[in-house]
Amino acid sequence: MSLFQAQGLVKRFGGLVATDNVSIAVEPGEIHALIGPNGAGKSTLVNLISGLLPLDAGRLELDGVELTALPPHQRVRAGLSRCFQVTSVFRGDSVRSNLLLAAQAHAGSSFRFLSRRAGEQALMETALGLAEKVGLSDVLDRTAGTLPHGVQRKLDVALALAARPKLLLLDEPMAGMGPEDSLQMVALIEKLRAEAAILLIEHDMDAVFQLADRISVLVYGKVLTSGDAEHVKGHPEVQAVYLGTEATA
Amino acid sequence: MNASASLPASAPAARRGGGFGAVLPWLLLALLAAFPLIAPHFELEYYVGFVRRLLIVMIAATSLNFILGYGGMVALGHAGFLGVGAYTVVALVDAGFSSAWLAWGAALVVTAAFATLIGAVSLRTRGVYFIMITLAFAQMLYYLGVSLRTYGGDDGYGIYTPLSLGGWLDAQPNAFYWAVLALAALIFALGSRLAVSRFGLALMGIRDNETRMAALGFPVFRLRLVAFAGAGAVAGLAGALLASHNGFVSPSMMHWTESAILIVMVVIGGMGNRWGGVIGVGLWLTLEEVLKMYTEYWHWPLGLLLIAIVFFAPRGLAALFGSKGERA
To answer: PROSITE patterns, per this entry (chain A) (predicted)?
Structure first.
């Protein structure tokens, strides 16, 4: 059985069907990429899965746990963690504080009122471990908002990793990156494969073909086709609606 | 209320611990504790009562600062909670109870209940809607007070026999002052500690980036609700103390302008700074007191002050004193 299953997801905005009966599954250890032209409904789908948008229909299941009715924070607890297309970190805080906050979310209650968090050694170790994992150890004391874009993206990923997720949702992790940063991010995602299954939403075709075990193509809110890189590259409709437009652009 | 309001600090709780900043609260506490004893020598007895009122309002402002500054919740109904606390005292006095501790404790509990209910509804909204709904609830409390004929309605209710602090304390003329000071110090210390606790840091995270906090797995709604209820309860305590201080309670203390002035005082002092409430209230009420001696148009200079602060010290006066943000 799949690690993660979304079945028959539907989302309407007024008359527009942004997500039209989408079913998608992720196997353990798999990187499943989701591609599609602008406006295909990729971000909507991510928000539906992570719970930031309510579903009109459909169901979600992760590792045998039904997620459909859970609010976002409980989905995270169930093992589904996400990154944001637009980098979402605590810009005014140091990298260390960012990581500490993420670590705090998954180690005990946040309803502790009287003891200083600064004294919690275990949290600090978790934070340092996360920094190490994504390569932020050198910038721990920098204010997050002042870091270069590529580094902030890494921090965004690190925040998501703090949950020790079973499934990681990466919403266009390469968005706005130069080629060098992209390479680093590809290497990082490849490394993360060992820790969590990944649903990767991405525009960067090179990255997708390099990383993904399976690719699904989303067009006008529907899954057009699903398969490995060769299958998708060879699919005539995909070439027409997606790769084709890229080639002529 | 953006994140840049409190830039630095990562592991600096230790670094910031030493020096003048650490001594200052104790110095101030000692000075305030000694004040009623010194005052008669300088014919300043009148100001003992004034300082007592300052301390009470500081408790209210500090509780508001917690949800406003640290929590990013612009609640325009805080005076409503002061009213609930004050009317709890009135209800108990009217029923024949006279223990101050019982009355204040009851005010804390009753207001916590009110704040939980009001918060559970209000916190489902954001931004302007949150401001409006907290205002609406406070106005409902205001009109509830007006309609309470048993407690004097519009005319208010006089508490003619001072509440009893118990035993030998009642013979000591300054006991109430010291009780207020002790509570104010306790609330200040509690606020300072909360700011570096898991709870406080999570609350600030929600203020800065709510979506990310939810995506990190934080129970955002519950965290905000607990903060809101706690701050409401402390405001209720301040209201109860104010009832004892004035010996009189009327619905006017719940009027929305009272809530607005509390916000103004916190903004002047410094939102999200532990000194915000103390400085804001101290400055505002002192200036009011002084200006009233010279002119009946004392609102003018205070208004100008507010404008100046918003332009030249948008993070409040506390920020000017070099006390950096409260992040740890």
So the answer is: ABC_TRANSPORTER_2
Instruction: Measure the CA–CA gap between B79 and B123, rounded to whole angstroms.
Output: 18
Q: What is the tally of structural domains in chain B?
A: 1
Using DSSP's 3-state secondary structure scheme, residue B157 falls into strand
Query: Given A101, A114, A116, which is nearest B205 (Cβ)?
Result: A101
User: What homologous superfamily is domain A4-90+164-248 in, according to CATH?
Assistant: P-loop containing nucleotide triphosphate hydrolases (3.40.50.300)
Q: Which of B199, B214, B220 sits opposite A113 (nearest CB)?
A: B199
- Cβ <8 Å between B217 and A76: yes
Q: For residue B23, tell me if it sits in a domain.
A: no
Query: Could B215 and A160 be called an inter-chain contact, meaning their C-beta atoms sit closer than 8 Å?
Result: yes
Over its C-alpha atoms, chain A yields an Rg (Å, rounded) of: 18
pLDDT of residue B167: 81
Q: B202, A162: Cβ pair inside 8 Å? A: no
Helix residue ranges, H only, chain B:
13-17, 20-38, 45-65, 78-94, 100-122, 127-147, 175-195, 198-208, 210-216, 220-246, 256-269, 276-294, 299-312, 317-320
Q: Is residue B238 pLDDT above 60, yes or no?
A: yes
pLDDT in tens, A29-79: 999 999 988 888 888 999 999 999 999 999 999 999 999 999 999 999 999
Contact B328 A118 (CB under 8 A): yes
Q: What is the pTM of this model?
A: 0.90
Asked if A90 lies within 8 A of B209 by C-beta distance, the reply is yes
In a domain, B28, yes or no: no
Q: Which tokens hold the place of B62?
A: 């500090």
Query: How many CA atoms does the CB half-sphere of A126 hold within 13 Å?
Result: 22
Task: Tell me if B9 is assigned to some domain.
Answer: no
| B-proximal residues of A, 89-118, CB under 8 Å | 89-94, 96-97, 100-102, 104-106, 108-118
pLDDT in tens, A87-100: 999 999 999 999 99
Return the domain boundaries, chain A: 4-90+164-248
Prediction ipTM score: 0.89
Nearest CA in chain A to B326: A93
Torsion of CA A16, A18, A21, A27, to 10 degrees: 180
**Three-state secondary structure readout of chain A:** CCCEEEEEEEEEECCEEEEEEEEEEECCCCEEEEECCCCCCHHHHHHHHHCCCCCCEEEEEECCEECCCCCHHHHHHCCEEECCCCCCCCCCCEHHHHHHHHHHHCCCCCCCCCCEHHHCHHHHHHHHHHHHHHCCHHHCCCEHHHCCHHHHHHHHHHHHHCCCCCEEEEECCCCCCCHHHHHHHHHHHHHHCCCCEEEEECCCHHHHHHHCCEEEEEECCEEEEEECHHHHHHCHHHHHHHHHHHHHC
Q: Which of B190, B239, B282 is nearest to B79 (CA)?
A: B239
